Amino acid sequence: MISINATLALQLINFLLLMFILNRLLFRPVLETVRERKERIDQARKDASEFADKGERLLVEFNGQLEDAKREANKERERMMAEATSRAEHLVIQTKEEEAKIVSAIRDEIAGQANSARREFKKQATALSLYLTRKVVGRELK
């Protein structure tokens, strides 16, 4: 049977002293380390969540800016295409006008050369007819 005597009191004092020493030297530091580790893990999770949120916001912002840049590039491309088309049409019209002027000048030159050749042929025909008449008739006609 268990007898309650002075050894029980000594064992109780020994146990309480051991609990006090273990609490000071082991339990408190271990619990403090566990608490600090938990706080660091919680902070790391919070930071990771904030970084993920910030990354998502930046990605959305970047995609928005990319879409804006694409729209601006398309507008600029369309403007440049319209300008190039207008310029090409202007050059075609200008080239046709110049072509018409050149063709007209060439026709005028050809007409002038044709008239000149006709006059020359007429002179030569008159001279040839007088020459042939003189040869056939045997005398000169006036």
Structural features, described:
- With 142 residues, the chain is mainly alpha-helical.
- The protein has one helix and no strands.
- The protein has one helix at 6-137.
- The N and C termini lie far apart (184 Å).
Mean pLDDT, all residues: 90
Q: What order do the helices and strands follow?
A: H
What fraction strand? under 5%
Low-confidence stretches: none
Topology diagram in text:
Layout: H1 6-137
Summarize the structure.
This protein has about 140 residues and is mainly alpha-helical. About 95% of the residues lie in helices and about 0% in strands. The longest helix is centred in the middle third of the chain and has 132 residues, at about 5-135.
Based on the model shown, name its key terms.
142 residues; mainly alpha
